[in-house]
Amino acid sequence: MSLPLSDRAKVMPPSPIRKLAPYADAAKKEGVKVFHLNIGQPDVPSPKEYWAAVKGCELEVLEYSNSAGIAELREKAAADYCKQGINITADQVLVTTAGSESLSIALSIICNPGDEVIIPEPLYANYIGFAAGTGIQVVPITTHIENNFALPDSEEFAKRITDRTRAIVICNPGNPTGSTYDRAQLESLLKLARENNLYIIADEVYREFYFDGERPLSVLQLDGSDENVIMVDSVSKRFSLCGARIGYFVTRNAALIDPAIRFAQARLSSPTLEMIGVIAALDTPLSYYDALREEYTARRDVLTQRLRAIPGVTCPDIQGAFYAKVQLPIDDSDKFCKWMLEEFRHNNQTVMMAPGTGFYSTPGLGKNQVRIAYVLKIENLNLAMDCLEVALAQYPGRTVTTETATAQ
Amino acid sequence: MSLPLSDRAKVMPPSPIRKLAPYADAAKKEGVKVFHLNIGQPDVPSPKEYWAAVKGCELEVLEYSNSAGIAELREKAAADYCKQGINITADQVLVTTAGSESLSIALSIICNPGDEVIIPEPLYANYIGFAAGTGIQVVPITTHIENNFALPDSEEFAKRITDRTRAIVICNPGNPTGSTYDRAQLESLLKLARENNLYIIADEVYREFYFDGERPLSVLQLDGSDENVIMVDSVSKRFSLCGARIGYFVTRNAALIDPAIRFAQARLSSPTLEMIGVIAALDTPLSYYDALREEYTARRDVLTQRLRAIPGVTCPDIQGAFYAKVQLPIDDSDKFCKWMLEEFRHNNQTVMMAPGTGFYSTPGLGKNQVRIAYVLKIENLNLAMDCLEVALAQYPGRTVTTETATAQ
Predict the structure, then answer these.
(1) Burial A218-237 (b: 16+ CB within 10 A, else e)
(2) Would you call A3 and B98 a contact, using CB atoms and an 8 Å cutoff?
(3) What stretches of A135-281 show up as alpha helix (H) in DSSP?
(4) What percentage of residues in chain B have a pLDDT greater than 90?
């Protein structure tokens, strides 16, 4: 008789972003240069304010913090939201161990096992993981590369509402799609949520990453967002502090704060020294974001241009975040991404990407897609695109013939 | 129609250790000195090796780490276990965001909602929290202050096994009891677990805190522990690094590693800089632990002596960890602990303790008990005991008359 595993242990998916890491490690051991386009890990330096605060810390004992976060950080984060036009007070912000924990707490306190959340797909793969961990059903609405993964009409959401539906989850700007949603779209979703007594969980961790025009609106900036909205936020991308594990759970619905704090108390505290660093990072001047946006706009432009020049590749328009969900002329993105790491070399270089299937809840979708995180300097991005172009011409499972490919 | 909360949001208890924090904050604002005996937050300085590594870190970008932890930390932690006679390899150790996450992953991967875990009580309050968060039923076995909260015979455990039982959870040395379990007791529990196809989850985060004789045995040192045992560990107490949030999930059962890694991938990474600090902290010389034990032995002795000198107080024998689960001559520990913070002052000082009820799964137990964490210097511990002694004489809900109390 073997020892049992739980059902959630069985359904928890491996991360499509990380599951190929052993193959990348093996390639690196052979001396191959691997360009990491698989993971949203920016190469931008973390703010010097962060490093100065951490290195200048004069604590002797690294103590637990308040479960809801260091008071100064909650106050400063709230003030920062207000500066952005999002009216939030310190008691409406809980510090979490990154956006991951914020989402996990949000799902846990509003959903019972078996309850449903509606999410446009392709979606951030880890939503599937958190739903699996908490026994929640993801009800996907498939969006399409042909119209740049645009948000479906609220009628499409309405059709999927059942008596088990508890929330609509959106990511704006979108991981992995690069889409952003406008005021009319957000208002229509909020209206639907209010009419049907649903929450909106808005993952807005890419708020600073927008390329054309205005900063995308937060759902918390809409009238009527007080009761129904939970915002999931994080400093990981904004401050290039992915390793700090500091995020926020933000809502104006006071009824959610108490259970969220009780969940936070169960794990005692987020990392104290990291909070001290983030308090300082919040003094980062606005020019940091401007430079960030300029750099990512340039990267987006290069990526889009290079991808669209490769025969058989479809690259959607990208408005925000730093991902592209790209369609390739391949049979199977899992096989292709693994082949790139195990067998393909171009000038002793190769590229790691995230296979597309892990970003869909609907089985079978995304087989000819990959997610590309354009988090590298343009020079390296160009080298990575050189690799991809050659690889697509050589890959045995290509679905566009070599003749067609090379003729263009 | 109000927006619904989940069942787990309703049953997740507030932390008995932290729920009175607002009253302590209010007292401090009045200028009152509050001695914190409520929380296992040692006042011992964190290792200088930790601070040097963190402050000397030359990274420019604070990146995500491998979801299972930085390889060097896994290797060093495994080597450290081997030095202690616990044979563990690097691939059997996953780095987690403190012991809290290790326990949460362990419960999640072995239990479905509705499954049962047997735990001797009084128990670490947060076990109740994690069980609530994951929908697991705690089946308590009450232990008694009269015999120092000794581990019940395995027959007592056997009686509580049902077809929903998945694990026995023990904490050794024990929080909040201060008990340690010997080889014969552990062997008998492991035998029972093996016979009934159960896991043992062994929380051994207080391994270095033992006062009389030998270091307590780890369950992983027993023959036959390969399949059935998951050890929950943490550097929080050992290195006085509660705020670092670094722990370990340790097992030799290879079938558990893969699901645990998938759960870890869903939250991406533990804090990177903290891992870098802990890698260095593992070079802490053995003399650090010797000094730690010497200090805590002295504190235990003072605490025990002082408590036993107060009329109506029962203090059990304490063999390990740094807690005492003490019986007081009071009507209600929740009221008493709150009264201490709100109303009682002695030389403008008071004491914060954790009410006893939160450490029992059985409703109604622990009403005349508190948990005292003796994590303060002896001088402060004595001042705190002065406060407690005077408070017990004045408390309106005392159950020993003032005459009796002052006559002794």
Answers:
(1) bbbbbeebebbbbbbbbbbb
(2) no
(3) 154-159, 183-195, 254-266, 272-281
(4) 91
Give B37→chain A minimum CA distance, Å. 14
> In B, residues 188-207, which contact A (CB 8 Å cutoff)?
197-199
pLDDT at B405: 45
Q: Do B245 and A18 touch (CB under 8 A)?
A: no
The pLDDT confidence band at residue A406, using thresholds 50, 70 and 90, is very low
Cross-chain Cβ contact B46/A57 below 8 Å: no
Q: What global pTM score does this model have?
A: 0.95
Is the pLDDT at A184 greater than 80, yes or no? Answer: yes
Tokens 């959607």 belong to A316
Per-position b or e across B83-119, b if 16+ CB within 10 A of its CB? eeebebebebbbbbbbbbbbbbbbbbbbbbbebbbbb
Considering chain B, what is the average pLDDT of its residues? 94
Would you call the peptide bond into A122 cis, given omega within 30 degrees of 0 as the criterion? yes
Residue of B nearest to A4 (CA): B110
Q: 3-state DSSP call for residue A153?
A: coil
CA-angle at B119, arms to B114 and B123, nearest 5°:
115
CB proximity under 8 Å: A 20-59 to B: 21, 39, 41-46, 50, 54-55, 57, 59
Q: Is A55 helix (H, G, I), strand (E, B) or coil?
A: helix
Q: Does residue A324 contact residue A353 with C-beta atoms inside 8 Å?
A: no
Per-residue pLDDT tens digits for B337-359: 999 999 999 999 999 999 999 99
Residue with the bigger pLDDT between A121 and B215: it is A121
Instruction: Look up the CATH architecture of domain A48-281.
Output: 3-Layer(aba) Sandwich (3.40)
Q: Tell me the per-residue pLDDT of A293-329, one tens digit each, with 9 for 90 and over.
A: 999 999 999 999 999 999 999 999 999 999 999 999 9
> Chain A partners of B127 at a C-beta cutoff of 8 Å?
none
Other Cβ atoms less than 10 A from the Cβ of B160: the count is 14
Superfamily name and number for B7-45+287-407: Aspartate Aminotransferase, domain 1 (3.90.1150.10)
Residue B20 amino acid letter: L
Say yes or no to pLDDT of B18 above 90.
no
Q: Is B227 near chain A, with CB under 8 Å? A: yes
Is A229:A240 a contact under the CB 8 Å cutoff? no
In the predicted model, is pLDDT for residue A407 greater than 60? no
Residue A263 has pLDDT above 70, yes or no: yes
Q: Binning pLDDT at 50, 70 and 90, where does residue B402 land?
A: low
The 3-state secondary structure of B85-133, one letter per residue: CCCCCHHHEEEECHHHHHHHHHHHHHCCCCCEEEEEECCCHHHHHHHHH
B19/A265 Cβ within 8 A:
yes
Phi, psi of A358 (to 5 degrees): -65, -10
Cβ pair A253:B65 closer than 8 A: no
B192, B158 in Cβ contact below 8 A?
Answer: yes
pLDDT band at A401 (very low <50, low <70, confident <90, very high): low
The answer to whether A96 and A77 are in contact (CB under 8 A) is no
What confidence tens digit (pLDDT) does each residue in A23-80 have?
A: 999 999 999 999 999 999 888 999 999 999 999 999 999 999 999 999 999 999 999 9
Q: How far is A128 from chain B (nearest CA, A)?
A: 9
* Residues B105/B249, Cβ–Cβ less than 8 Å: yes
Residue of A nearest to B99 (CA): A267
Question: What Å distances lie between residue B230 and B106, B129, B220, B252, CA to CA?
Answer: 7, 19, 8, 8
Q: Which residue has the tokens 């109303």?
A: B343
Is 50 exceeded by the pLDDT of residue B57?
A: yes
pLDDT mean over B12-32:
91
Burial of A331 (0-12, 13-18, 19+ CB in 10 A): middle
Interface of B with A in 246-305 (CB under 8 A): 253, 255-256, 259, 261-263, 265-274
